[in-house]
Amino acid sequence: MYISKISIEGFRNFPQNEILFNDGVNVIIGHNNSGKTSLIKAISLLINNEDSRRLSIDDFSKTSTLESLQTNPPSIKITLTFKKSINEADNSDDLVTVSNWLTVLDANYEAMLTYEFFLPIDRQENYVQDLTQCTSRDEAWLTIKHDYLRFYTYKIYGGDPTLLNKADHDSLQKFDFQFLNAIRDVERDMFTGRNTMLKDVLDFFIDYEIKSADEETKSTEEKLAEIKAIRKNFSDKASELITELQGRMSAGKEEILQYARQTGATFNNASPDFDGALSEIELYSALKLIIGYTGLDIKIPATHNGLGYNNLIFMSLLLAKMQVNSDGKYLGSNAKVFPVLAIEEPEAHLHPAMQYQFLKFLKENKQQRKVKQIFITTHSTQITSAVSLDEIICLHNDGRSISAGYPGKCFPNTVQGQKSKSYVQRFLDATRSDMLFAQKVIFVEGLAEQVLLPTLARYCGESLEKSHIAIVPVGGRFFQNFLYLFDGTNEFTIPKQIACLKDRDPERKKKTGGSFHSCYTFQMGQDEEYDYKCHISEKIEMYQEHPNIKFFGQNHKNGKTFEFELMLSNLQSDVLLTDSITNKDELNDLISYYNDNRSKVDMLDRLYNSPSNENFKTALTEFEDEGWTEDDLKKCIIAYRYLASVGKGENAIELATNLEDNLLLSPDEPNEQGNIRVVFNVPNYINEAITWICQQ
């Protein structure tokens, strides 16, 4: 059995939501205030028997209008749907537990459990009268808090909630919900045998070699007899210690009793004395958790270890306790049937390598059926990169509503769809899985765009960081593989705002055969012997009216690549010529020629002699088209040479540094070194993309 779905109405930031779960590990991610903690709390209200199920005024969703509050008292309704697990036996304890809550009665059963927090009907007439006097929502909520919240009650119903059949207490007690929040005091919770959890774990695992012996080796009666004999032997030895202790106390006891007589404590022949006995459980309190280091004669208290290490120990003890709670032989009818583990932000105290190891351990624990279902909320890209897409649930809050996306379910069940899913799964390392956490995403082709875009945004007067925008290089032209995750027109997706920066990259191939290869921008459509294509115009048109995805690119006749466009937009100076660029002298001269209005022929003559330059000269010399001015072609010469001269990664980092330094300069007053801010123009398509996504 597993929790397959939760439906939430009116609870915190979930006015009305339905979220699907996996049979096994559920890694719940999302940016801050996307509802992760509230989701765990909603599950807890139904199956956590240790915490209070009463709620406060802040637990209500505040999306109700004043009119609706005046008409009906707000309520909270949360429903869990349970389904049969794939490998579950037909007559399992799980089925017995939910047998009174079934809503589907066939072999693949389903059951429902519903929590409602509401104002009893006998208070509702007065409620309506009082709330009618309120003139604002704030006043209405204040009235509910002070005058009516104390009358609210909760019920838990099993099965179809419309039938109002109360869930029986014994069945609810079969759930074992253990929650580790991000802020916890592990020293208080586990480090001495006085703690209840540690005491319970020790009591279960003492004499474990006997308890866990195969039934064929030792019967239950033989095990009990052997343990009883060990306890008797322990008790006899303990009695000897108590007797020895009393002997050592005999003289002192007489002194103590003399004080007792003097104070009147021996009134009516009463005589204080000392006696006692020791059991294993009482001696647990004398145990303290220590850490010994293999190969070194060192033992230190666990309190002297780091928080991360101690959290791992604490989690392991908690899982041991869950094993205790679910052992029917040990607890009989009091054993838990459905253990659920929820962990909030395990990365809070864990090194990235430990996060990966811990997650691997949890999966193995689940496979061994010691925990039926695991819920993890996280901001850790290390964790998301270590799990499968099918295990991730992404909560997204766009400021108006919360939605849930399921990365593993977004891909169509086609050959191409499953190839895309495999590609994205391999792609999601600890850096690039940031796309699942960000508020918005910009997909780019390569490293140069990723490095430079935050700086270009500053030149546009925007901040990608403040807008919580992730920049993700897709490694070429593989945008579609990732758009499956975010396409808001399909179900299961994460409807974030997505901007895609795609190069035009003109190409052609002969109509007689062969494959497409790159061509110069001015060659597009010039020769009837070729078929032509570019990589942006169709995408811009396809996504023009899309609700959350938009493409941007160099969609003009001289458009080619990101670097090409940077130069086309900044021919007025040498701002793009970093120290790492090759052919720097040539480019400096070409820019000077252009700004001095030298001819196209002069600029072509300035090019270094090389096979690639000769091919370019020939193609440009033979080119004639009235739609292309000489100025267009001169710009093309400089942009072509710049594109051929940049090493993408190194140049982008250096250029970003130079542009950041440039922003620190005044546009009017020179600094002490005589420097003034150089004019830098952000290409139009990038300016449009940044403005669009930042203002959504």
What this model shows, in words?
- It is elongated and about 125 Å long.
- The strands form 5 sheets. Strands 1, 2, 4, 5, 6 and 7 form a 6-stranded antiparallel sheet that branches. A 6-stranded mixed sheet has the order 8-11-12-3-13-14, sandwiched between helices.
- 41% of the residues lie in helices and 16% in strands.
- Among the domains are: 2-185 and 327-389, Rossmann fold, CATH 3.40.50; 196-287, no CATH class; 562-681, no CATH class.
- With 696 residues, the chain is α/β, with parallel strands linked by helices.
- A hairpin with a 6-residue loop joins strand 18 (507-510) and strand 19.
- Helix 17 (415-427) crosses helix 19 (479-486) and helix 22 packs antiparallel against helix 25.
Task: Spell out the blueprint of helices and strands.
Blueprint: E1 2-11, E2 14-20, E3 25-29, H1 36-47, H2 66-71, E4 76-83, H3 93-98, E5 102-104, E6 110-118, H4 124-132, H5 137-148, E7 153-158, H6 169-172, E8 175-180, H7 186-190, H8 196-205, H9 208-211, H10 220-248, H11 250-263, H12 280-284, E9 290-292, E10 299-301, H13 307-325, H14 328-331, E11 338-344, H15 352-367, E12 373-378, H16 381-386, E13 392-397, E14 402-405, H17 415-427, E15 440-444, H18 447-459, E16 469-473, H19 479-486, E17 497-501, E18 507-510, E19 517-518, E20 530-533, H20 537-542, E21 549-552, H21 562-568, H22 584-595, H23 600-606, H24 611-622, H25 630-645, H26 648-664, H27 684-694
Parallel strand pairs: 3-12, 3-13, 8-11, 11-12, 15-16, 15-17, 17-21
Antiparallel strand pairs: 1-2, 1-4, 4-6, 5-6, 6-7, 9-10, 13-14, 18-19, 18-20
Helix pairs in contact: 8-13, 17-19, 18-26, 21-25, 22-25
